[in-house]
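Record filed here:
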Amino acid sequence: MVQYDSKTHRVINVHSLKVGVGWTHLIETASGLVLVDAGSPGKQSKMFRYLEKLGRDDLRLIIITHAHLDHYGSALAIGRSTDAPIAIHREDADAMAKAETHLGLVRGWGKFVERTMPLVERYLSPEPTQADLLLGDGERLDRFGLDAQILHTPGHTPGSLTLLVDGGLAFVGDLASTRGRPHAQLFYATDWAQLERSLKRVQSHEPRWVYTGHGGRPIRGEVFQRIKARRV
């Protein structure tokens, strides 16, 4: 999807790819590429093929929105091949380094996933992934060629983050989803009240488009503003 930044007068291309059970987002700018999430373990070849199709070899950063294996699973393999550093919020760095996926307080469908997660982890065998860069709230990414900042948006996990591109794009990980109608996270949270506050924080920035970790289409800003977290 092509986005136009009226502030900087730059064109930003966003390529959304289904990699395993979730979606990754490749942000393409004139000065390089930034990858938001890396997909499930063993799915790196799909990203390599797509980079080859684009004719680009300038991946500058891999941002992991939170430490769940369907988001960091292929990060290490992609980082090894491209030399792109792997970044995550410091609150989730330890879980990713131990190749862990903590689901927190689950609801609905999440209860089934919680029961089967040990089998999933054994089958997929995610690699322990050490972050090269620990991110904090308000940190800017200009040095990676992206006019953007990090928002700490915990609740789904302690270190869940949102990448807010100043042109009006928000990459929220699993804070929201477009599986079915756009909605807030329904199944997994370490703190449901905190998740609600994080959703409101992102909404306060009034993004024009919101990209999620599950569901291939972005959410229009006016639709995102109407989304509400389900109370416990």
